[in-house]
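Is this the right way to post structure tokens for a design question? Let me know if I should format differently. Anyway, here goes:
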């Protein structure tokens, strides 16, 4: 089964501008962002992407109270992915289902909250909750899904910084090909807006976005960009081997045909365009595709000065002679959803297989000349005659790079 074709049969998501794929996609095509101002402990007002999904749809109040925000995001998205796949869940052997969820960081929210709580009681640790340990272990988001859905197969989270969403999908694909599981729930989640530490860290780094209009604060490629908008969110995919999906008559959304992960091995925060271009080339090689075969490149671009420039250099190296390859970005709508970013940004482009529209990057008033990529789709959607392939970039701190390639499904 090592060469099995792996397909997507379900997508469940929550983003700041949509709680299902149809709503999310409509807002991307229509140029509608949704960033809010939050009052953050110790910091005052910050811009943030906030999700507004219904936690009670799949969880009881006690489960929400005792669990984590990341767990609730993961449960909602996994359950939505299951519903979208139309799998007969009652007949599934739950020991043959795996859960592979990427995340940037986990446990900071809960630890910060507990420290703050005991500070109200002169730091008396008897007020420290007994729920803290299961809330903060690294496997928590996937583990909460396992308990909620009664899945007895493998579950774990994948710490791959902001490449984690792609990494979750890659892990799911690999486990299906190894015949370790028959169904994989894979993708990424983030609860980052609930910790002041990430905002404070980006602010001290000079990389936290500021703008009088929060919906214009995230502006990748724009000359006046000044940093990241931190967001929460999640996107989980149902993955299956093609033969299994066809045997049950599943609706096949897309096929994963190429991927690669590599490392800069250079710096904790400054990216390396050579390694990024190498990552894309390696994904193309695995997919047996040439750069000119790619219709859309979904850029990682976070709206940090050097981050955007280095990725643009990498994209230009790979796609410089590709007149029919178009580039877009999704963080301009929803901010940076960290561990969910790769999975959410890929999902935003998947409906292009049906509508043949490349959604634009918004908030570009004056393009940075160092981000001048050929066929960057700016502020207005681009209609193509046909879209068959998408390459999704997702990069992270400590120099981790990922590229994932999906195709419109065909039997051949």
């Amino acid at each position: 089964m090592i060469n099995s074709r792996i397909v997507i049969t379900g997508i469940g998501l929550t983003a700041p501008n949509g709680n299902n794929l149809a709503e999310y996609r409509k807002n991307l095509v229509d140029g509608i962002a949704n960033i809010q101002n939050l009052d953050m402990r110790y910091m005052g007002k910050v811009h943030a992407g906030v999700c507004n999904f219904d936690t009670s749809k799949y969880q009881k109040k006690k489960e929400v109270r005792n669990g984590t925000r990341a767990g609730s995001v993961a449960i909602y998205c996994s359950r939505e992915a299951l519903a979208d796949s139309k799998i007969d869940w009652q007949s599934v052997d739950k020991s043959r289902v795996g859960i592979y969820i990427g995340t940037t960081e986990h446990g900071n929210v809960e630890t910060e909250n507990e420290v703050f709580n005991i500070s109200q009681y002169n730091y008396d640790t008897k007020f420290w909750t007994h729920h803290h340990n299961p809330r903060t272990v690294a496997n928590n988001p996937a583990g909460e899904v396992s308990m909620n859905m009664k899945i007895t197969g493998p579950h774990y989270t994948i710490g791959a910084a902001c490449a984690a969403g792609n990494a979750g999908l890659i892990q799911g694909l690999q486990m299906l090909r190894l015949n370790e599981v028959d169904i994989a729930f894979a993708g990424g989640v983030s609860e980052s807006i609930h910790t002041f530490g990430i905002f404070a860290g980006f602010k001290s780094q000079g990389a936290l976005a500021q703008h009088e209009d929060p919906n214009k604060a995230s502006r990748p490629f724009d000359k006046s960009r000044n940093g990241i908008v931190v967001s929460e969110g999640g996107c989980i995919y149902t993955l299956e081997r093609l033969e299994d999906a066809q045997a049950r008559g599943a609706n096949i959304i897309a096929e994963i045909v190429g991927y690669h992960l590599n490392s800069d091995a250079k710096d904790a925060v400054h990216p390396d365009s050579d390694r990024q271009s190498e990552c894309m080339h390696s994904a193309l090689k695995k997919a047996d595709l040439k750069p000119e075969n790619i219709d859309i490149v979904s850029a990682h671009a976070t709206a940090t000065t050097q981050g955007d420039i280095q990725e643009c250099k990498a994209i230009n190296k790979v796609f410089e002679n590709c007149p029919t390859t178009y580039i877009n970005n999704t963080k301009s709508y929803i901010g940076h959803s960290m561990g969910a970013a790769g999975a959410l940004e890929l999902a935003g482009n998947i409906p292009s297989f049906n509508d043949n529209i490349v959604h634009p990057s918004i908030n570009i008033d004056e393009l940075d000349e160092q981000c001048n990529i050929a066929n960057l789709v700016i502020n207005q959607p681009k209609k193509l005659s046909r879209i068959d392939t998408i390459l999704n970039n997702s990069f992270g701190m400590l120099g981790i790079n990922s590229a994932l390639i999906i195709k419109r499904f065909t039997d051949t």
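Format looks fine. Someone answered above. Worth noting: The chain has two domains: 6-247, 257-407. The longest helix spans residues 69-85.
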